[in-house]
Specification:
Blueprint lengths: L7 E4 L10 H13 L17 E4 L5 E9 L2 E7 L6 H9 L6
Antiparallel strand pairs: 1-2, 3-4
Length: 99
């Protein structure tokens, strides 16, 4: 059994779970305040900004790369819910270009 720790990042909202505590909570509150968004704003947006935490590290599962033409590479893979495939492709191709 591997023991790993994954860093998470907030998607601010009313019911972030798990909720940050202590220094981490203070840091997240500062970022929101610097952006002009007080936590109380989420109380007024019930149902529209529920909040969550997402892992900062995404593991690409079942990756397959196939050269389908001399200049065309087809990538297929599975990502966990909430992950963006465009970011996965940019990481795999080391492309700084928007996909």
């Amino acid at each position: 059994m591997r023991h790993e720790v994954d860093i998470t990042a907030p998607m601010p909202g009313l019911n972030e779970r798990p909720e940050a505590r202590d220094e981490a909570r203070a840091r997240e509150d500062r970022v929101l305040a610097e952006s002009g968004i007080p936590r109380e704003a989420f109380e007024r947006s019930r149902g529209q900004a529920e909040g969550a935490r997402r892992p900062a590290r995404i593991v690409i599962q079942e990756p397959v790369a196939q050269l389908v033409a001399p200049d065309v590479l087809e990538l297929t893979f599975t990502l966990p819910p909430g992950a963006y495939a465009t970011r996965g492709v940019a990481e795999v191709t080391h492309s700084g270009h928007p996909i």
